[in-house]
Batch of 3 targets.
Target 1
Amino acid sequence: MAKATHSGAALADGLVLDIHDLSIQFGGLKAVEALSFHVKEQEIFGLIGPNGAGKTTAFNCITQFYHPDRGQVVFRARDGRVLDLVGLPVHDIIRLGLVRTFQNVEVIKELTLIDNVLIGAHTDFKATILEQALRLPRARREEREMRAKAVRALEFMGIAHLKDAPAGGQPYGVLKKVEMARTLMAQPKLIILDEPAAGLNDSETAELAETIRRMRDEYRCTILLVEHDMRLVMNICDRICAISFGQFLACGTPGEIQGNKLVQEAYLGEEEPE
Amino acid sequence: MDKITVQGQTPPSNSNPAARAFRNPYIRYILFGVVIALLPLLAKSGVMPSSFLVNLGGVLIYSIVALGLNLLLGYSGLISLGTAGFMGLGAYISGYLSGTVGLPFLLTVLIAIAAAAVIGVLVGFVSLRVAGIYLAIATLCVSEILRKTFEELDQFTGGFSGLTAGYPTLFGFKLSREATFVLLTAALVLVMMLTHNLVNGQMGRALHAMRGSEVAAQAMGVYLLKYRLIVFAIASAYAALGGALYMHFIKFSYPAVWILTLSLNILAVVVIGGLRSIYGTVIGALIVFAVPDLLLKRIPVIGGIDGIAYIFTGVLIILVVMFYPSGVVGIGHDIKRLISRGRKGGAGNG
Amino acid sequence: MSTFLQVFLRSLETGGVYALAALGIIIIFRTSNITHFAQGSMGMFNTFVVATLVANAKLPLWLATLCGLCTAIVLGCLVDFVIIRRAKKVSPVAKQIITLGLIMVFVGLAPMIFGVDPLKLPRFIESGDLDIFGAHLTYNGLFNMVLGVALMLILFYVLQKTKMGIAIRTTASNEPVARLMGVPTRNVTLFAWALAACLGCLSGVMIAPTTSVTPNVMDPVQVNALIACVLGGFQTFYGPVLGAYIIAVGTNLLSFYVDSTWGGQLMYLLVLVFIVFRPQGLVGKKFIKKV
């Protein structure tokens, strides 16, 4: 049975994330209203919705960049603990095994690819600043181990040959892979990908779909995909949640979502404004 | 020794053991130190005027201080105009404790470093709230408060008439000017190595992340407050170390030394030498603190102009920021790139 | 009561000086997105022009000041034309560093052109005291106070009502959009730099008679003007003016009633604590971060 820790949170077996009654408003505007859905272990879950539907806000509420006004975000951490994330500091989220990418890739131009990937392991370093400054054995060992791990992550993404190249000047596609490799460093339980297909062409999107599946299978993690590209979502997601104007529309398999009247209306309303 | 990839350098594969040793960054720092430590010999043998030694010693001291500012400005993207204040703090604490109180030199240096680090942490707290445009002004405020303190606490600082000190006494030996110069070199090499380790490890990456995007850094688990405090503490500690060494090498300290102009000069060192470059910082210190005195003032006509050093530094800052943001150290890389491009025959990839 | 009034009136005089300098800083900040650290140094340079004309060419002060304003305009335009305009692409921190470099250039140029000897600058009105409920105020002090307030009123009128003022405010709120809407943003920044230089020169001419004209004459004005901007917030034009008067009054009252040597530092400390709790300044909105 699920263990309860932080504010009495509980999570059914087989689930990794349970969002309940999530609500946030900005100056009277209800960006997300009473949103509830759950994500099962090792599934690829899609969160979709037309422009301005509140997808990004919803996931900022999950990662605690925004603290929601109401609701719970119950998460099964990588060490098996079950806790409600609401109210935790942003920088404490990743060490639980919840890691994200960014819509407009956030990599450090001046660092090499491998150093960028190593940032993802930030919270797993145990050596103190003093140990690092003096390069004491523990700091050296950790650095060596993490570097090896980062090389594996880069190999997984197929860009290990570029590991010592500076990130500045690399093509967009490579930077996206760096971001994804970085998530793999955090011993992820749940990876949230924020519009990973944005700016990719068809063949790159197909490759991305394959990569996401491999990430799930080889790193045994769950993927929450916040995406605009319907083909990608329909292609790889096990289940999808659709929202519009901050509110829940439907949740189900890609087939069910495609056939759902509410979802069709929401999207039609966007594409054909007459 | 584990392999550390030093940024911007791709060592050629070479199995020659000497070449391999030279590629080890620590051996290079030590070699660099040995070369500098030999300079007093040059002065003794008369190849170099011995007055140069004072200037070059100053360069070493300012290099230490500027490495601290480079951690702030270069790696973390935080601007500080309080450097002079912290340097003065180190100078007065070390000078007073070793002179009037009679504590051993090394202990006074440690106390100076600790005191500056504590105040640095306080500034770090402020920095978290007032990032960006306000931070420079807030640090300027702190520096002003410190400077006023130096003027007014005259029972400790000697007020406007200043405080004097002698060359340091180390383990019972009173050091000469030359020996103090070697001590400065050792301190600089040590600080360079520490800085190298810090910026190439977990902390360095965290600072990079913080500079790149605070939001992304937090999402990667970087606790902004912690690293802001640490980096301000380290920068202040370096400044205080530099100040303490200044006190015992230049041998006097007036409140009028620790003013905004000095902070600006240190800033110039970092910007001109190269943000995020350890050797660049030393080159920058040489350009800002030695070139005006040792070269410019010797050039006829131009050298006689008052204020030429300021104009030189000021114009260089502006030119570097506008046209060469990677600093003087970037020129070396660019020349290398030009040569390798030239070797390829320049066919096609112009 | 009369001493309090006297302290207060004096503060209004220095406050006006800080406010003029701060207005220069804020106009630059709003139009060019640069924290203008060289406002004081440029003011110092032009004050040297005025002082030299008075001392060597024996010009009357008002004529020398007019000449100083002319060089200020030329200098302001030059800085914008030669440097700022070409530095559009550099980061905000790098732009700050450019103005820090400018400080050094002007501090170096001043002794090169005007010599190393400090100069004396006369007051506009050499003598005469005013008695207000027992508090003394020199006619010159009154003149400075009135001049400061009058200049600010004119400036706010210009900003609110004239075409140039609207152009400045549009550029301030969103430069790219203003440019697209046909606002001549280049002229606006040019005007802003000239105006800021004039304000710096005037604050220099007002403060210089209390000491002598040296390269450091404007340091306290620069520091206090910057702190006034922080206190008042960088988002409005009147915030820094408010901040300037608060700092002047606060410093003088603290110096007089609490401690004569530490009053100024105490004020700085209070401002530091204040911005820790209200980083956006007295008047200004908080930004909401976006991902």
Target 2
Amino acid sequence: MFEVSRRQFLKLSGATAATLAIVELGFDPHKAKAAAKELKTARTDVTPTICPYCSVGCGILIHVKDNDVVYSEGDPDHPINQGSLCSKGSSVRDLYTTDRRPKKPMYRAPGSDRWEEKEWDWMLDRIAEKVKETRDSTFVVNEDGIPVNRTEAIASMGGAALENEECYMIQKLMRGLGLTFIEHQARI
Amino acid sequence: MTAYAKFVDVTICTGCRGCMVACKNWNDLPIDTQAYNGTYQSHDKCDGKTWNVLQMKEFETASGGFEWLFRHQACFHCTDAACEKVCPENAITTTDMGNVVIDQEKCVGCSYCVYNCPFEIVALADYVNEDGKIVQRAQKCDMCDSRIHEGLVPACSQTCPLDAIVFGTKEEMRKLAEERLAIAKEKFPNAMIYDPPGVDGTNMFYLLPEGPEAFDLPVNPKVPTSAVIWKDYAQPLGKMALGGTVMAVATAFITNKLFNKGHGHDEEGGDIDESTKE
């Protein structure tokens, strides 16, 4: 058997007690870490913006740190929402951070079953070309002897997040093209 | 210590779920897509990935009418917190503001708190530890600990468009709850304040339009008896016993030193010391 003298036993006990005492006193590396935890928005650049979803137009603050959106919240100084946001407005950070966000214009050719990435220049030229082509081929100048100057082959759809100035521009452009179907998301 | 509380007025909630998204946003919680189960409710209940869930209940009133009940479901921050009591690593603590927080670095994922929470709120979820490993740790609402300690209100409270979630001292919130109760009584005769005494009151409490049963809440939640026996009786006794042993050893050591001086070689210990030439 392992023989232990009384003195050795006492020394061992003392060492054990001392170890336990130190452990109980708590040399805890986590404590320092917890104390250092600072507010997530303490060192962020804040940009005010307007919610892109419904027509209420709530104010939102976007918090940016290291070129990433770390938080978005209702703007407490905004007269419309005074700091509050609904579930859609609260999720606005995901518009930027989600991996499902398309970063280039997406194009689906007629008859095709898949989307492909295109450049903005190509996209704008293509839209302009198609608008001109459609308008010219369907433009009606007179109907029953009355001048109408219209096309019924194109429609315009506005969104709730458009502001006065954008609505004005859209009206000018669409009326200029001769559109009659100028609609708004909130009416359908 | 001033106890702070989050007061949730269930009677005026419209169920917009802004609180749910704001919580995920502030706490960087992951997406958790769950299967459709026949109701408008997005998640089954609170868990480690979703710290607050908007419960949607279809309720039939006494007169046969239909009423939607919407409840912001999250950690109650019990004054006598069962999770804190059962935690063997002391990872769960109540801060000076009365909110109950879990130290993710101290937690070992034993899930005692998960099984002892009277409201089934705490749950295990992925956590990336100091070594970059993904481990299972107990997680739940911490009432936006860093926010409230900087003088802000919790993210859910700030985003609520109806002022249905209000944050302030417990005293102020109790007063506000009484005022709102008087108003709510006109529309909901069964309205009540849910601040259960079985856990010494909670620092997240409700004004409910109907009894707690209508929301699947426990009528009288209590800290589990086993937890009380273990933490309030067994553990202090165990610590006393350990302390006693240490004291006995220390006393024995000192007395041995004191009284054995001069006896020298007659002692058994001395003999061995001689032979080992220590």
Target 3
Amino acid sequence: MLAHLAGRLAQAAVASFGVLTIVFFVMRLSGDPTLLLVPEGASAEQVAQLRTALGFDRPLAVQYLAYVGDLARLELGESLVQRAPVAGIVGERIPYTLALAGGALLVALGLGIPAGIVMAVWRGGVLERVLAGFVLAGQSLPTFWSGILLILFFGVYLGWLPTSGADGVAALVMPALALGALTMSTFARMARISVLDELSRDYVTAARARGLSVGAAVFRHVLRNAAIPVVTIAALEIGNLLAGAVIVETVFAWPGIGQLAIQSIQARDFLVVQTIVLFVSSVYIAMNLLADLTYAAIDPRIRVRG
Amino acid sequence: MRGVSPGMAIILLLLVAFCLAALAAPWLAPFDPLRQSLLLRLRPPGTSFAAGTYLLGTDDLGRDLLSRVLHGARASIAIAALSVSVSLLVGTTLGLIAGWFRGWTAVIIMRAVDTMLSIPAILLAVLTVAVLGPSFFNLILVLGLTRWPRYTRVAYAQTLQVATLPYIRAAEMAGAGSGRILWRHILPNIAGPLMVVATSEFGLMILFEAGLSFLGLGIQPPHPSWGSIMSVGRQYVERAWWLTVFPGACLFVLVLCVNLFGDWLRDRVDPRSQGR
């Protein structure tokens, strides 16, 4: 188990380092990173001054080491456009994105898992076909389209829900539904496959032979075992939901980090964009690690092999 | 090859129809997709005027929506096809090299794959396009270069398997070089699974392009793209439903067909996965 843990930690460290490096080079693709950080309308003189102040006139290797050093001390820098620390600018938006991702996860778990179980238990029935249609649609729905359709129907036509903003729980309903659709499909597929796998095992046949109904067998035995892959997928999906929030937040004017990223691009405040990419990637890597470790903790076969 | 089911036949027909519509957009479109008419702003579908009938209505600048949706299909399919080609080429080459030479080469390449897969692709694309500035060429480059790792994973695993087969050893002993073996003997044998990945990636690329354009980072106005039409539609959601419903429906149906085609292809290539 320890070797497994160490291996996974090393992998996560390599990935984090890789992410830092990729972001560093992407920021320099434009030629002059100074231009990505100065407010619009800055004079050539100001730009030159800032280039020296920010150290962009130093050799690339020195810049890279300084950048990694700053990040290691969690010094994220100050936005020159907003004249405020980036950590604060991004930090105050994070709770909104977490609320949105949490809502989407709730939608996905609450609808996807029961749908998957029903599809496995009543395999070949009409209900399975109908649900399979929904799952398939969920996979192909662009979030910005389903989001606007929700706005059209519930916001404009019925007038039940606010069409944008973040006033209370009612405003969270539509963004969470739009964002959760894809994850819901993933959960439904996973739950279906893992319940089907478990249903074909000997212990289920034995339970049935003892006179247990299918429903009782599923509830008493199958779900516990089928939950393992689903739990790990849930951790992975949290990262995807944070990334998907970029578009959904723009559709619903939800004041999270996704909307902030797009607003910052428009304001040419790239330090904020860089921080958001780094933040979401770290969560992504941490969730991957968590998923791996959970998997190993629940399923002893992984530990031995790894 | 087994027969194609009627459902699959419809999907294939739809895919062909989309491609033909995209190719023939300049001839099929009833109007110039860029011609504005301020008298005809936000007219509902079916509005007739001196110049003709606007079947799907008009947008905020009085341009014909049908013509814009047709031209949008062109942009969408072209960008998806080209960026899939870029990532297929890059990803497969790296995967073949890693699987054939193994050792340190493989460790470095596969670590790079892990790293790329731990950055959410859409965010990396947003950042890179924003830094480089949105253009047709940059879009293809960015999408192509952010999405190669899945091909590398598949090509690597498959190459490892195929490389141990006797006929590869035979080719080696007959004096064939690494390049020749990879190109002539290994690639044709691992092409099936790679095509399955490419198909599902094609659907994803269409969604990515539309998403980036929706965010204002894709195809730039006045040129039409489904994503950018819908972002105007979002602004006028209370007055002009047609601006989101039609391009979105095209996007949805196209991606759905591509995904269904991908599932079908996967069952053909790997019969074990059937029904999953």
